[in-house]
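Weekly structure sync, notes
Attendees: PL (lead), two postdocs, one rotation student
Agenda item 3: pending single-chain targets
PL asked that the sequence for the first pending target be pasted directly into the notes so everyone works from the same version. It is reproduced below exactly as submitted, 459 residues in total.
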Amino acid sequence: MDCMDQAVVPYRRPPDDAGSYAARWQGARPAWLRGSVVRTCPAVFRLPGWQSAHLFDGLGAVFAWRLQDQPRLDWRLLDCEASRDARRGRSRLATFGTRMRRPWWRRLFQPVPRISDNVNVNIQPFAGALVAMTEAPKQARIDPQSLAVTGWLHYDDDVGAVSMTAHPVVDRGAGVVVNVAQAFGARPECILYQHGTNDLRRRVLARWQASEMPYLHSFGLTPRRAVLISHPLLVRPRTMLWSEKPYIEHFRWRPERGTRLVLLDRAGGAPRIAETEACFVFHVANAYEAGDTTVVDVLAYPNPGIVDELRVENLANAPTTKPEYLRLRIPASGRVALERFEGRFDFPSVHPRCMGQLHRYCWGADPWSAAGSSSLFKLDAQSGATRVARLDGWMAGEPLFVPEPGAAAEDAGVLLAVGSHVARKAAALFVVDAASMDVLAVAEAPVDVPLGFHGTFIH
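Predicted structure, written out during the meeting:
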């Protein structure tokens, strides 16, 4: 058996390493909705001589729901050095939560281990292709049709082999990709950079140096600045030297330090730091500016306990820790003001035109909201009201908001969420009205597909 038990959390992959599976529609999708939902996921957790200890380290796959009159689900396991090593029973590369196995002499001569290229976290369109990513220096080009790895991105600059987040902001209107990288060397720093959507020359916009680095998964971006969430899950990079421990086990939770909000100006200059209460953040929903105040909306956990709950040994029980939707108002001077909302979800999505601007609506998912069911949420950040779509018998992740062409309303469009059935072999794509949160249509295929993290919709 090469995957986890599907009794509680469906992470069982299709029977083939690659394939195409016919699906059928139930209900009626909007006539304008045509394209592909492309996603990554952790798919293989156990092979002879190798085993993943954390959900984030499952060997990756790419799959695509093709939205057409006769829908289909395409699937392919990722071909990378990490997957080839695992098939040989090796664990030579540094991963998020699974211990490496390196002989002493390799650790002596290579104190900083090479980082896994298992790009199972996100996939986004830029650089003339689909790009699959994890929190590492390597990013893979993915063919949109075959879903195969066609090569690896090579940046044409002197920034170096730094670990980039898997949440770049792709601003297609401005023609740029903005991201944050972390360098864990003698001078630890976060590097804010951008490059054109069709080139790979990174231009450094700003830097923040600190002796301790936070675990950084995503960031907020406005037209003027980026906001880094430096929660107190911190590491001194020198502790990583000569180690076989996984990446996240080097970090320590220091709640007495509070959370620092690091503002990096896209025009350059020194960082500005504000402080707020201790919390742990995977995902930033959005950021925008209101006069001299920078506002960032986050999904905040009280502590990083969710990281341990997602270890493979703990997944027999659905994670119980839920985040809180927080709005952080960072003035030019003075204290950060907090506004709390009732939404208890993660994997946030807003209208693309609202990225970096004031938004009213945010959608998200609680994949583990009840025994054997997931829920999709719509939060009205103006009134504080929420609407919920309960997907009984299904576990579904991040909902992608796709706007209705030509519509003015911010919630005119659909949510596209991928689900796996908890009791039978079935995968589904849910099409949900983003305004009413009614399920409009479901495409279902009689095959297992693991619950993944992030993805994109392409026409």
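Discussion points:
- Residues 346 and 410 are 20 Å apart (CA to CA).
- The longest helix spans residues 81-87.
Action: rotation student to compare against the earlier draft before next sync.
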